[in-house]
Write a structure and sequence with these properties.
There is one protein chain. The chain has 318 residues and is of the alpha+beta class. Helices cover 34% and strands 32% of the residues. It contains 5 helices and 17 strands. The strands form 4 sheets. Strands 1-10-13-12-11-16 form a 6-stranded antiparallel β-barrel. Strands 4-7-9-2-17 form a 5-stranded mixed sheet, with no helix packed on it. It is elongated. The N terminus and C terminus are likely disordered.
């Protein structure tokens, strides 16, 4: 479809259930450009040797996918030690042998004291007073031993929590040595290679989201206010090659609060990319044209706040 034919066809189109737009209801926006929504520089988050880096430039990857690894042998050893300490503390917190032993000793002390008191009741003075006091002291010591054993078991429970935190910290250290993708996208640049030494913050690779793209253009501030355009449906014609243009649709999702020196301000729509032969058809940097239907039903859910500037290039920090 040629650009001229597309503009003629678009002028006759309207939203379902809406009046057919007239020339005054359609805002033409020429000289637009396709741009990236998400462009992420994925960094290393730990110091060490890059022992693995699986993707190549052009590979499509998924969010959360492990892309590479920094030497983690020391972290793995630390985790093994933390696991052993945790298991030991947990076993100790569940072990009631010392409590039961102290309780048994207390029962014996109580029985010995009871026998001594019973003998003296029948024949006063048979068991000397100092021996009775010794038996009473032994009983009190047995009670204290029970309290001590129970206290040690409680402390062991807290120690288990500390060891669990150390185990979780070891897991985090291992995770810091993995390089994962923060989004679905395509690898467009490898900044490091397997076998190289990296430091925290060093960019390892760059990922670009391709399933959704922005199309940006400029409109006159003297003719159209942001409230007139935000959420309005838009038809976009992307010029894929000199001989081919592809139509896509969207809504105006952003209007810049800044009016440029020439009296125009920037607007943006988000469009869904197309696939052809296993490849993305629309690419950042291509030119496009837009037609905004002022009488079309707005899509408020698709509109981002006008005061924000989403979609800027970002870098994931360690």
């Amino acid at each position: 479809m040629t650009t001229a034919a597309w503009f003629l066809t678009l002028a006759a189109l309207g939203q379902p259930g809406s009046p057919t737009p007239t020339n005054s209801d359609v805002v033409p926006v020429p000289d637009c450009i396709v741009s990236i929504i998400d462009r992420v520089q994925v960094p290393a988050s730990s110091l060490g040797l890059l022992t693995a880096l699986s993707p190549r430039e052009g590979d499509e990857i998924s969010r959360g996918q492990v892309l590479g690894k920094i030497d983690d042998r020391d972290a793995v050893v630390q985790k093994a030690a933390a696991q052993a300490n945790h298991d030991s503390a947990e076993e100790q917190s569940k072990n009631t042998v010392r409590v039961r032993a102290a309780e048994a000793a207390r029962d014996v002390a109580q029985a010995e004291l009871d026998v001594a008191l019973e003998i003296n009741k029948k024949k006063p003075g048979t068991i000397p007073g100092n021996e009775v006091r010794r038996l009473e002291l032994t009983l009190k010591q047995s009670d204290l031993q029970i309290d001590l054993a129970k206290s040690e078991q409680v402390i062991a429970g807290f120690t288990t929590m500390v060891r669990l935190a150390e185990l979780q910290a070891a897991d985090i250290e291992i995770g810091r040595r993995q390089i994962t993708s923060p989004l679905n996208g395509m690898v467009v640049q490898l900044e490091r290679r397997q076998g190289e030494w990296v430091r925290p913050g060093d960019t390892v690779l760059e990922i670009v989201r391709m399933d959704k793209l922005h199309v940006e253009g400029f409109v006159s501030a003297a003719k159209y206010a942001p409230v007139d355009l935000l959420g309005k449906p838009v038809e976009v014609l992307v010029h894929v090659t000199d001989a081919r243009s592809e139509p896509v649709t969207g809504y105006i999702t952003y209007c810049s609060p800044i009016v440029e020196a020439n009296g125009d301000y920037r607007i943006r729509t988000e469009v869904t990319n197309l696939r052809e032969g296993g490849h993305w058809l629309l690419r950042p940097g291509l030119t496009a044209s837009m037609k905004i239907n002022l009488r079309g039903a707005p899509a408020t859910a698709a509109v981002q706040p006008a005061a924000t500037e989403p979609g800027a290039e970002t870098s994931v920090q360690p």
